[in-house]
Specification:
It is globular and about 70 Å long. The strands form 4 sheets. The chain has a 10-stranded mixed β-sheet. Strands 2, 3, 4, 6, 7 and 13 form a 6-stranded antiparallel β-sheet that branches. It has a 5-stranded mixed β-sheet with strand order 17-14-20-21-22, with no helix packed on it. A hairpin with a 4-residue loop joins strand 6 and strand 7. It has 2 domains: 196 residues; 130 residues, no CATH class. The chain has 363 residues and is of the alpha+beta class.
């Protein structure tokens, strides 16, 4: 009898252990790869870069993109070709060395990462809706594939993001130091000495806009400008119920983006700190209840200036007005203003362009 009890206890413990292991495996099934980006027209090249999975010298790592010039169209773009990925692990350290071409300087840094923050974004997956064509119903899928993106700025600033198909989130900001001991001839044979490095850098900068070339020659690269892109505001999008807004996607000037699925979230607008937007995509219904999708693009400097007119920490409504008579391919119909307790700021002058299309399915 005692032996039977022992067997039962052992089997129970084994089942509990297996169940616990299975649960941990399910929770740890996320995977990630790497990317890099830069501010537009400020190219960089990674000489050596690793996202290290531990804190010991022999820890495994994933390479950052290297042997390619990174010159992003927009901050937050997943540029460069990563040479690896990992599953169920969170990086602990970023070790990186790169060339800032507009400065003709190399930077290096070893940074301890906010592992908890990174894992929190990955471990439970990233939810997004999809449209099931056979059933004509919306469903929810969880994405477990992520990208960790390092933005490289003149002056040696590094900003780290976690990307999923429905969001891009900043998880750290770091300051690298200038490194005059990088052996660039390992990457480019012509960069054997200072003269070779200068010639190669000048060649890579030939196609930059004249404004950037002038900054290089006049030593007026706007190092402080990029810090202003990361200012956040107590910003809440505001829409009218009759517009039947289903989805809003914001790309922000700080490189983050956010997808707000109102139709699946009881029309509740999430409250959080947000940067000024660079682009907005909004799905709504016209006067005939036809689903429409509008794209609105903002000028970075103008939208930033208008947002800076608000007071620190005050609540701001990002009020979206839609002309529901807007037809497909029309380039007007969306107007936007900032609304605070004591005033309104029209954002029309910051809108570069907009266009509207029909959208047969929600997602």
């Amino acid at each position: 009898m005692k032996n039977k009890i022992k067997v039962i206890v052992l089997l129970t413990l084994l089942n509990l252990t297996l169940a616990s292991c299975q649960k941990n495996m399910e929770q740890k099934k996320y995977s990630w790869t790497t990317a890099a980006c830069t501010p537009k027209n400020y190219p960089a090249e990674i000489f050596s870069g690793h996202l290290i999975l531990g804190t010991k010298p022999n820890s495994a790592y994933v390479y950052m993109p290297f042997d390619c010039i990174i010159d992003s169209k927009n901050l937050g773009d997943n540029d460069g070709s990563s040479s690896g990925e990992t599953t169920g692990n969170t990086p602990k350290v970023l070790d990186i060395t790169w060339m800032s071409y507009t400065e003709n300087k190399s930077y290096s840094g070893i940074f301890n990462l906010d592992t908890d923050k990174i894992e929190a974004l990955m471990i439970n997956g990233s939810e997004r809706p999809y449209w099931d064509v056979p059933t004509k119903k919306a469903g929810i899928v969880k994405d477990y594939d992520f990208t960790i993106n390092a933005a490289l700025f003149p002056g040696g600033i590094v900003v780290l993001y976690v990307f999923s198909p429905s969001s891009m989130t900043i998880v750290g900001r770091y300051q690298a130091h200038e490194d005059k001991n990088v052996d660039w001839k390992v990457a480019h044979k012509s960069m054997t000495d200072k003269k070779g490095i200068d010639e190669y850098v000048n060649y890579m900068n030939e196609d930059l806009p004249q404004e950037i070339k002038d900054q290089i020659t006049q030593e007026t690269i706007p190092f402080g400008y990029w810090d202003t892109l990361f200012r956040t505001y107590s910003l809440t999008p505001v829409v009218k119920p009759e517009d039947k807004v289903e989805t809003i996607k914001f790309n922000y000037i700080n490189g983050e983006f956010e997808s707000i699925f109102l139709s699946l979230n009881n029309n509740i607008m999430p409250i959080k700190k947000r940067a000024a937007p660079r682009k907005m995509n909004i799905v709504w219904h016209d006067i005939n209840d036809r689903r429409m999708e509008s794209y609105v693009y903002f000028d970075e400097k103008k939208i930033k200036t208008l947002f800076e007119q608000t007071k620190p920490n005050e609540g701001i409504g990002f009020v979206i007005n839609i002309d529901r008579n807007t037809k497909p391919r029309e380039t007007t119909g969306i107007s936007i203003k900032l609304k605070t307790n004591d005033r309104e700021i029209d954002l029309q002058e910051a809108i570069v362009s907009q266009e509207t299309f029909t959208k047969p399915v929600p997602y």
